[in-house]
């Protein structure tokens, strides 16, 4: 239309309006194309990030499986070696024989605990675990957990300080919540120093929630690990906080248990004197 207009000839108003309309349509189409181009770029970036996340997850899974294989192999090899020694030496002194038998029992317990964690994690992550929720005293459950790790703390000379809390009754599966508390306390015992290690458990009540704080004066958790520490395949690259197999799965299991009770568990990023885990229950 524009090319058909001759300069020497006067242009009528309708023709001018038509030219303007065509220009307006062209501008609108260009804007739409630009917007679509931006949308495609954003989508491409999102797909790229998602792909990178999948690659990282796959790497973490491979590392996790390698670690599991190693953890399964170690006690199995130890049990076999001790059994062969006992089988080949009928004249072994009783005390030495007892020592080998104790090692076999301990390695068997370690192997059973690892297998239980693997099965627990699989059931909980797939929603196949049925919680036996009844009314329990949170104070009593916490003291059971502290009693359960008492020997570990005593052996390492670690102090566990539990603030006195009023009796709070909530509906939960006591075995599973006891498992969470025990895991958090055991992890703290592992990562604090001998003799001067201190673990504190505090409770805070609000109108709708119960908050429990598990604090220790250990090496703490790097900021870059906090977002991923509850992932079942995650192992920290920082050797100071690299999770032992039991505790690594234990944190993932703990998260599934707490979320199955409509609560939450997280690391406090503002706590700088060690590590602080916050468990939140709904009243």
Description:
The protein has 283 residues and is of the alpha+beta class. It folds into two domains: 11-129, Signal transduction histidine kinase, dimerisation/phosphotransfer (DHp) domain (Helix Hairpins), CATH 1.10.287; 136-282, Heat Shock Protein 90 (2-Layer Sandwich). The chain contains seven helices and seven strands. The chain has helices at 13-88, 94-125, 138-148, 150-156, 174-191, 223-226, 245-260, and strands at 134-137, 159-162, 169-172, 198-205, 209-216, 264-267, 275-282. It has a five-stranded mixed sheet with strand order 2-4-5-7-6, with helices on one face. The protein has a two-stranded antiparallel ribbon with strand order 1-3. Helix 2 (94-125) runs parallel beside helix 7, helix 3 (138-148) crosses helix 5 (174-191) and helix 5 runs antiparallel to helix 7 (245-260). Mean pLDDT is 83; it is low at 239-247. Residues 30-67 form a coiled coil. GO terms for molecular function: phosphorelay sensor kinase activity. It catalyses: ATP + protein L-histidine = ADP + protein N-phospho-L-histidine. It comes from Nonlabens ulvanivorans. Its EC number is 2.7.13.3.
């Amino acid at each position: 239309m524009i090319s058909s207009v001759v300069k020497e000839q006067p242009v009528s108003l309708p023709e001018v309006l038509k030219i303007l309309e065509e220009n307006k349509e062209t501008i609108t189409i260009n804007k739409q194309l630009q917007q679509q181009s931006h949308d495609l770029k954003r989508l491409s970036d999102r797909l790229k990030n998602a792909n990178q996340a999948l690659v990282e997850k796959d790497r973490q899974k491979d590392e996790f499986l390698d670690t599991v294989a190693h953890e399964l192999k170690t006690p199995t090899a130890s049990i076999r070696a001790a059994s062969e020694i006992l089988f080949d030496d009928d004249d072994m002194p009783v005390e030495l024989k007892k020592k080998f038998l104790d090692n076999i029992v301990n390695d068997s317990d370690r192997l059973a605990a690892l297998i239980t964690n693997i099965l627990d994690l699989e059931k909980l992550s797939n929603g196949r675990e049925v919680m036996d929720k009844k009314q329990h005293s949170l104070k009593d459950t916490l003291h059971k957990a502290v009693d359960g790790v008492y020997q570990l703390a005593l052996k390492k000379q670690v102090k566990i300080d539990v603030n006195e809390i009023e009796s709070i009754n909530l509906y939960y599966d006591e075995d599973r919540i006891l498992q969470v508390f025990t895991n958090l306390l055991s992890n703290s015992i592992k990562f604090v120093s001998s003799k001067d290690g201190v673990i504190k458990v505090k409770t805070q009540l609000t109108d709708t929630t119960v908050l429990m704080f598990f604090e220790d004066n250990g090496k703490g958790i790097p900021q870059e690990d906090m977002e991923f520490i509850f992932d079942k395949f995650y192992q920290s690259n920082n050797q100071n906080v690299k999770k032992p197999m039991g505790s690594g799965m234990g944190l993932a299991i703990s998260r599934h248990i707490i979320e199955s009770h409509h609560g939450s568990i997280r690391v406090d990023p503002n706590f700088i004197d060690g590590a602080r885990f916050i468990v939140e229950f709904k009243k």
